[in-house]
């Protein structure tokens, strides 16, 4: 019974020193962060892709993917800005299953969170410094934010966390964009209440101290679909939903209306090939409606080296969580988006 401490307490600065950006590297990251913020504010009209593995379970596979993505980014940079998904902690409704690199840095070994924290920093650091890309992660544990605040450029608050007060309040103190997903129920008001809280000043206890925040005007919506009471998937990327979302932004007077479509999860019914069709349909809606083109300017895509998923990490670069588009299909899709935007 009770909580039992394992080992000594984490020394934050000691962990951060293990993988710290040099002033030159930090300046390059800051420049990309400014570009990303300009996209959210509507000053930069490029399309945003938050793209990469469902979970970054293997450092070398994630780095191989990052190098390929960096080469592709150079080719499409005039119309597309990509931030790599480097998701290192996975929500588990019943506590079972793979919980991500943070919990289990070696999938063949027992969980080790201290080593996991080091592995998370190392992976974000290597991708930034070796490829020039910047990274996104899911803010599953608000208390861990300070461990990666200098490395991660985009934070996502997931469907199971968006109602949580601490997630919302911490998002209000982050200087980078924070995407707030609709909950699994599909209730868009819950998501918008989260965005409202994140965009406004808050006071709360964080790391045993009372803190105040300035509010984060870069907090925005991610539409990920939902499941109904029967467990059936309910997409929410359709045109009528997009119009409702844009109207709600206006009614609430929120800053920087920006919408990302999560192309997997409940929008695709976890049928990973559906991601391609969902993007094509959204681009048609963009071409047809000026407001959709202006404000629905991001996609979240689950993509890895190999198509699909596997139960055990036997095939290099194949997801052990949700199924992903393989690299060949990913490359074709990004080029298709680039060509479509140029028409």
Q: How would you describe this structure to a colleague?
A:
With 343 residues, the chain is an alpha/beta fold. It has a domain at 43-163 and 178-193 and 219-250 and 257-305 and 324-341: Aldolase class I (TIM Barrel, Alpha-Beta Barrel). The protein contains 12 helices and 12 strands. It has helices at 12-17, 23-41, 59-76, 113-131, 145-148, 165-171, 188-199, 239-252, 265-268, 274-288, 290-295, 327-341; strands at residues 47-52, 80-85, 135-138, 152-157, 178-181, 203-206, 209-212, 219-223, 226-227, 233-234, 259-262, 296-302. The strands form 3 sheets. An 8-stranded parallel beta barrel has the order 1-2-3-4-5-8-11-12, surrounded by 7 helices. Strands 6-7 form a two-stranded antiparallel sheet. A two-stranded antiparallel sheet has the order 9-10. The protein is globular. The model has no long low-confidence stretch (mean pLDDT 95). GO terms for molecular function: 3-deoxy-7-phosphoheptulonate synthase activity. Its EC number is 2.5.1.54. It catalyses: D-erythrose 4-phosphate + phosphoenolpyruvate + H2O = 7-phospho-2-dehydro-3-deoxy-D-arabino-heptonate + phosphate. One of its GO terms (cellular component) is cytoplasm.
